[in-house]
Amino acid sequence: MSRKWILVFALVLALTWTLAACGGQKAATEAPKAEEPAATEEAKEEAPAAKEKTVVVGFTASQTGKYNVPSTRQTTGLQMWMDEVNKAGGVKLSDGTVLKFKAVSYDDESNKDRVQELYTKLATDDKADFLISPYSSGLTAAAAVIAEQYGIPMITTGAASDATYKQGYTVVYQAYTPASRYLTGAIDLLMDLDPNAKKVAFVYENSKFATDVNEAAKAYAEKNGFDVVLFEGYDPDIKDFNAIINKIEAAAPDAILGGGHFQDGSTFARQLYEKGAKVKFISLLVAPPEPTFAELGDAAVGVIGPSQWEPAAKYTPESAKAAGIEWYGPTGEEFTKAYQAAHDGEEPSYHVAGGYAAGLILQKAIETADSVEKDAVLKAMDAIDMMTFFGHIKFDTSEEAHGLQIGHDMILIQWQKDGGKLVKQVVWPKAGATADPIYPIR
Amino acid sequence: MKRLFKPGLLIPIAIIVALAIWPLFSGNSASAREAMFTLIMSMALASSLNIILGYTGYVSFGHIVFFGIGGYAGFWVITHLGWHILPAALLGGLVAAIIAWLLGLAVLRLRGAYFALATIGILEAMKALVINLDFLGGPVGLEMHFSEYKRYGGPMESLWMVYWSMAFLAILVIVVSYFIKTSKFGLGLMAIREDEDAAEVMGVITPRAKTWAYVLSAVFPGIIGVLFFFKNGNIEPGDAFRLHFSIEWIVMLMLGGAGTVLGPVLGGGIYQWLRKTLLTSPIFKDYQLVVAGVMLLIIVLFVPTGIIGWVRTRSAKLRRIFE
Predict the structure, then answer these.
(1) Hey, which of A56, A140, A211, A278 would disulfide with A159, CB 3.0 to 4.6 Å?
(2) How far is residue A204 from each of residues A261, A399, B322, measured CA to CA in Å?
(3) What is the per-residue pLDDT across A79-134, written as a single tens digit (0 to 9) for each?
(4) How would you classify the pairing of strands A199-205 and A227-234?
(5) How many H-runs (helices) and E-runs (strands) does chain A carry?
(6) Complex confidence, ipTM
(7) Which of B63, B14, B61, B6 shows the shortest CA–CA distance to B170?
(8) What is the SS3 assignment for A339?
């Protein structure tokens, strides 16, 4: 009897696998393929005299599984950087060597089982010169062990948890603003909007990333005299927020902070609206900056979200000059335009920008080091202090938190109605704001 | 002692030894080591599951719970009390065994589908519990400082040490599995599998036999969990208690042949080798799940007893060689 139903179960499993693979397929194939035609093209243009060296950049991407969407975007961004550099003739070193970049990647299936195996393969079989992290803090933590073991510089993107950078690694560098500073901007904004606001509620996903963010934000709120009236985690697979919304209503906070990833965040925003909960201020992780968040309609109005980057972000060569920091790479406008030209006018999300920024950081370090020799590149990486379209990039070089991002800051966006149409407006930091924030929402 | 020199035991051990020393002879030892680690780990996990699923006929869907519990226990004593990895691994196995014994008292009264469902329930409950335990890091999990590897001579040496421990453990699992299968205790388990009531009438003390089978099948995943997460450098509830991985063990077992000694070794090896080959092949890397899914369907539809089960029903001669 048991055999029969293992059979049934295995059939179901096989079917879901097949379906999952088909679903992930489309997104997966479009991204990494673009490279080859570009490579042959410039091979022709290049003068044969120059010594050419191919630099291998290795990483795993989540072509299947739960991280498929953000990971694919990240890969698209990185690939875009690589194509642009190669098309422009590569990176030229002072000894005449021309560096061309080549990506080698495997599917990590959004889980940790094979991350170390694949990164070891990248480091040894594929002889990767540099590594880029997988998407998500959990997978990155496993990959970092291998990067460190082989001493191959790894730039992490899509991995915001602080803890990874406090484990004594010396070759791992973070492109994103770390989790500890993810939601603190929202609290600054709230203080700016309403000095009388005193009560905040945290409702967050029970995952590594969201917990890190919310615990740091809670500490920050308490330090600034807020009263945390609710601090509640929920399961990542949650479908029904009613019980939590009841608790929120009972606690009557001035602001709701939290969220986790896309699915839960948008469900939470929608159910809050459907239940008619009185919300003055709400800021959720990850979900609001995604363009598809607008599909929630009226439920999206007023929702604030921290974003690593936005097309409207005002990082320019001028602002860099004003801040006394060196400018590097394309402007935000150039980046957005190039992406839109290749993707039917779709707006790039911050995952794309993060992938591109990881490439830029690597390029800058190689140029400064004037070599691909690992120690020289690591030294150049430590010295990076630059402004890019993605924002300010600078790494912590202390022993305790080596590689932690200390330059980059979050941007806060809010969905607002503009003549019946939902638009994403930058509301924080004030200097880069494109609109005044709505407060209270309802 | 005579039982030690039977082909039924020597063949699976020879397979594991051959795979384990392969990295020493291959050009790229690190990459081969990582690949073999996944293979051998899967063989050991599938063989452990075989004790309760294959011999006793109790389908444990949530068996990864012991992998997670052991992993957490071992990881915690390494990071908080500064234990050496080897005693920590043994502790992981011990904790998993104790929890299996306690759980077994309750859930082994259930049969068939009810037991299988209960194991999933236990898995989810344990995950929820760990997420809410602050000293285990809650949803964030625990991380190990990189300098921990220096204690064993550096990260490279640590990974090799974990690898050899894993290979040794896999052989141990096979020996235990073989001895169970050829012992009176194992006969009792198989009687339970065929008809529990009849077994009881025939004099098998079923609650005791089942509990022992459950405990034995939990010890090794507990130890392996510690080795795996030590190698990874961090542990999170999502990875420690991932139902999908647990179901994969069942697939490996079915592929090789449940209730045999050699079956889980072949099944675990072939399954992981196939997945890895597809995953890293330039042609199939985008289609690997489709291919794996189709293969699984074929196996389930045409060879439901697994490779070894199929071979054993075809040939009386091979039946004597393959256990």
Answers:
(1) A140
(2) 9, 31, 53
(3) 999 999 999 999 999 999 999 999 999 999 888 888 988 999 999 989 999 999 99
(4) parallel
(5) 13, 16
(6) 0.81
(7) B14
(8) helix
The fold for domain A181-307+410-432 equals Rossmann fold (3.40.50)
pLDDT at residue A322, as a whole number: 87
d(CA B80, CA A304): 39
Residues paired with residue A326 on neighbouring β-strands, in sequence order = A386
Q: Tell me the chain B residues in contact with residue A167 when contact means C-beta distances shorter than 8 Å.
A: 143-146, 233
> How far is CA B50 from each of CA A296, B15, B223, B253, B292, rounded to the nearest angstrom?
48, 18, 16, 7, 22
B308, B260 Cβ separation under 8 angstroms: yes
Residues of A in contact with B118 (CB under 8 A): none
Which pTM value belongs to this model?
0.83
For the segment A255-268, the average pLDDT, to the nearest whole number, is: 92
The alpha carbon of B45 is separated from its chain's Cα centroid by a whole number of angstroms, namely 1
- Which residue in A106, A112, A148 is closest to B285 by CB distance? A106
User: Do A25 and B286 count as a contact with CB atoms less than 8 A apart?
Assistant: yes
- Rg, C-alpha atoms of chain B: 19
The percentage of residues in chain A with a pLDDT greater than 90, rounded to a whole number, is 61
Q: Rounded to an integer, what distance in angstroms lies between the CA atom of residue A319 and that of residue A314?
A: 8
| Residues of chain A contacting residue B117, judged by C-beta atoms under 8 Å apart | none
Which residues from A are below 8 Å from B140, CB to CB?
A: 161, 163, 208, 211-212
CB within 8 Å of chain A, chain B residues 167-226 = none
pLDDT at residue B96 in the model = 97
Fold of the CATH domain A31-177+316-394: Rossmann fold (3.40.50)
- Tell if the CB–CB gap between B254 and A125 is shorter than 8 Å: no
pLDDT (tens digit per residue) in B159-168:
999 999 999 9
* DSSP three-state, residue A428: strand
A72 beta partners: none
Query: According to CATH, where is 3.40.50.2300 located in chain A?
Result: 31-177+316-394, 181-307+410-432
**Pairing outcome for strands A326-327 and A304-307:** unpaired
Whether the CB of A394 is below 8 Å from some CB of chain B: the reply is no
Q: In sequence order, what are the beta bridge partners of B255?
A: none
CA A153, CA A368: separation in Å to the nearest integer? 15
Residues 6+ apart with CB under 8 A from B144: A167, B75, B78, B79, B230, B233, B234
Is B233 near chain A, with CB under 8 Å? yes
Query: How many Å apart are CA A69 and CA A288, to the nearest integer?
Result: 15
Rounded average pLDDT over A334-357: 92
Cβ separation A208–B304 shorter than 8 A: no
Whether residue A9 lies within 8 A of chain B, CB to CB, comes out as: yes
| Whether B279 and A118 lie within 8 Å, measured CB to CB | yes
Q: Which of A139-148, A278-287, B262-271, B289-298 has the lowest mean pLDDT?
A: B289-298
- Which residue on chain A is closest to B286 by alpha carbon? A25
**Chains A, B: CB pairs < 8 Å:** 157
Residue B53: partners with Cβ closer than 8 Å, 6 or more residues away: B59, B60, B63, B217, B250, B253, B258
pLDDT at A28 over 50: no
Residues 106-125 of B with CB under 8 A from A: 112-113, 116
Interface test with A, best of B64, B286, B291 (most A CBs within 10 A): B286
Q: Mutation test of the interface with chain B: which of A12, A15, A17, choosing the one with the most B Cβ atoms within 10 A? A: A17
Closest among A319, A315, A291 to A305, alpha carbons compared: A291
The parts of chain B modelled with pLDDT lower than 70 are 1-3
SS3 annotation, B258-298: CCCCHHHHHHHHHHHHHHHHHHHCCCCCCCHHHHHHHHHHH
